[in-house]
Specification:
Blueprint: H1 10-27, H2 32-41, E1 49-53, H3 61-66, E2 71-76, H4 79-86, E3 94-98, E4 110-116, H5 125-133, E5 136-146, H6 150-156, H7 171-178, E6 182-189, E7 194-200
Length: about 200
């Protein structure tokens, strides 16, 4: 019998992250070597147009800039998170949008889309991937990643975040969700990180 997926209310997600925004950066653990591995696995390179989905307060912004990307379009559904991220992008090729990435019309395509430390908070993962596929150029990449193990993430979400979090799928399960639009090039789930990357088919 198929398990019933917990219901996540997007308004609950917004409220949770709006309340957390003020202390988010001070409490953030930023595993630099792991993030570098994730961006390598995402095929992030100089000159790319990047879509940062659920960007939060912009933790990945310095990493994008150090790799010489052409542009970053960053989107987050929580206004307080987007506001803080937006305060970090003056004089840079980064644009921050407060919006729902599942329904937003970006009006352009990207070389690389990254969902970092956020995937369990999407109520409909299948539809999120389907929606993002429209905005990724043929040959471009989609990456879902976490800078911790799946078990550590499960424990992390078992407290106050439990009502706004789904279980992280096994990499093979997520690869199956990618399959209609992407050729999966990387699946990783170990003690330090989780990542699935796919290349958009023509």
């Amino acid at each position: 019998m198929e398990k019933t997926r917990p219901i996540i209310d997007k308004q609950d997600v917004i409220l949770f992250f709006d309340r957390a925004a003020a202390t988010w950066d001070s409490e953030m653990i930023c595993p630099v070597p792991v993030i570098d591995k994730i961006l390598d696995g995402a095929h992030l390179r100089h000159g790319m147009d990047v879509l940062d989905v659920a960007c939060g307060t912009g933790v990945l912004f310095p990493f994008y800039m150090s790799r010489g990307v052409k542009s970053v379009t960053a989107i987050d559904i929580a206004p307080a998170m987007a506001k803080i991220a937006g305060e970090k992008v003056q004089d840079s090729p980064i644009t921050v949008i407060c919006g729902d990435a599942e329904t937003y019309d970006f009006g352009r395509q990207f070389d690389c889309a990254i969902i970092y430390n956020a995937f369990p908070h999407f109520a409909d993962p299948d539809n999120m991937i389907r929606s993002l596929a429209e905005w990724i150029r043929p040959g471009g990449t989609l990456t879902v990643a976490h800078g911790m193990s799946a078990e550590a993430l499960r424990l992390h979400h078992s407290g106050s975040a439990s009502r706004i979090s789904l279980a992280l799928p096994e990499p093979e399960e997520l690869a199956n969700l990618f399959a209609p639009w992407f050729d999966v090039t990387l699946t990783v789930s170990n003690d330090e990180m989780y990542q699935v990357t796919g290349v958009r088919r023509t």
